[in-house]
Amino acid sequence: xxxxxxxxxxxxxxxxxxxxxxxxxxxxxxxxxxxxxxxxxxxxxxxxxxxxxxxxxxxxxxxxxxxxxxxxxxxxxxxxxxxxxxxxxxxxxxxxxxxxxxxxxxxxxxxxxxxxxxxxxxxxxxxxxxxxxxxxxxxxxxxxxxxxxxxxxxxxxxxxxxxxxxxxxxxxxxxxxxxxxxxxxxxxxxxxxxxxxxxxxxxxxxxxxxxxxxxxxxxxxxxxxxxxxxxxxxxxxxxxxxxxxxxxxxxxxxxxxxxxxxxxxxxxxxxxxxxxxxxxxxxxxxxxxxxxxxxxxxxxxxxxxxxxxxxxxxxxxxxxxxxxxxxxxxxxxxxxxxxxxxxxxxxxxxxxxxxxxxxxxxxxxxxxxxxxxxxxxxxxxxxxxxxxxxxxxxxxxxxxxxxxxxxxxxx
Length: 411
Ligand SMILES: Cc1cc2nc3c(=O)[nH]c(=O)nc-3n(C[C@H](O)[C@H](O)[C@H](O)COP(=O)(O)OP(=O)(O)OC[C@H]3O[C@@H](n4cnc5c(N)ncnc54)[C@H](O)[C@@H]3O)c2cc1C
Known about the structure:
Layout: E1 5-11, H1 15-24, E2 31-34, H2 42-46, E3 55-56, H3 60-63, E4 67-68, H4 71-80, H5 83-92, E5 97-100, E6 104-107, H6 112-126, E7 129-132, E8 135-142, E9 148-154, E10 160-171, H7 186-193, E11 198-204, E12 208-210, E13 221-231, E14 234-245, E15 250-251, H8 252-267, E16 272-277, H9 284-294, H10 301-305, H11 311-319, H12 329-334, E17 336-343, E18 351-356, E19 374-376, E20 384-385, H13 390-408
Parallel strand pairs: 1-2, 1-10, 2-7, 10-19
Antiparallel strand pairs: 3-6, 4-20, 5-6, 8-9, 9-10, 11-18, 12-17, 13-14, 13-16, 14-15, 16-17
The protein binds flavin-adenine dinucleotide.
The site of flavin-adenine dinucleotide (FAD) has 39 residues, from helix 1, helix 2, strand 8 and helix 13.
């Protein structure tokens, strides 16, 4: 570790930390990026099923409805470094991108490692950013006369602790999901010791586990269905699209989209159900007329269902209601109910909801309102999005805002 004081120390070399360092690369400032793993961006490597859904190219008016809990907080940093800016910046590093269904942007190569490597190469080319891997930050303390003292553990052949001085610090340590990638909630501890409030965290974009889960469903994907989330008997969210049944439970785009509200409701002790409409394009009466027209009494109901449902869905659908008959079939097809018992924990949740309270962070600069010179970027904050590239864009925009403000601060 070089001696002397850094202008900016970035804690955490994930999506946000790498983007912050990339924006600062080549500029007139001395930056250190500290990452506890032996390589940066370990979580980035598993994003988008190894393909990295970099961002979503929707315009802000549509984009904002995918950001929680407060898209207004995200607006200034998105406007200053948008989804288009992200793509342009990565393209300028030589990374080609492609837009797919749902306006999701991926690297053309289909390899998430290419996104991570493009950022790392750009950082190295700048010449002013020192990248320290195998460096675990233990504490961040303000110095009496300004700036920060950072204590870190250097995990080389001989493990040793040391101190690093910085004028500004950006905390980009991520949340709690997929802890094996390095995000173990350290940033919450640093922020809380520095006087910040932490909004209680929950796993989000995670599988919902039904009562009496029928393992015959595992591997089934239902397309063009509609899903209603019920909390204590009332519908609180309705979505249309694709859902999958996995070993974990109900997930896929639809399952994930409702998981945020579902997990919050389960934690609050409410009764949560997921109701699937398998024939959303048909009114119940139209469906009834069709069944009456088509169904022949000499054919078993399960046989007839093979015309209406994917084969794998037929048995679990029949099993879900022993009273199923041709008379109640239209209602049941439009209301396949799963009462939700639990949810999959952080070990396999895509993101963490909750985190450092947005009330104590400037939405333009990401600077702490509690400790001057301290900044936040990415999932460590109480800011998260739907699947579809929204979470990486949160990391990228907030990182750019934080590092640009830190560079401009003149501290
Ligand atoms: C399986 C999976 C797939 C996903 N796919 C997508 C996708 O396709 N598109 C999308 O938009 N989002 C996706 N996400 C979400 C997205 O990856 C995260 O929201 C994003 O990575 C958050 O970036 P971050 O930099 O804030 O945190 P992270 O990427 O988690 O990075 C935090 C970094 O800080 C380091 N760190 C933590 N504590 C310390 C410490 N004390 N000292 C030093 N370093 C430390 C960690 O090792 C880690 O490298 C996915 C997530 C998962 C789990």
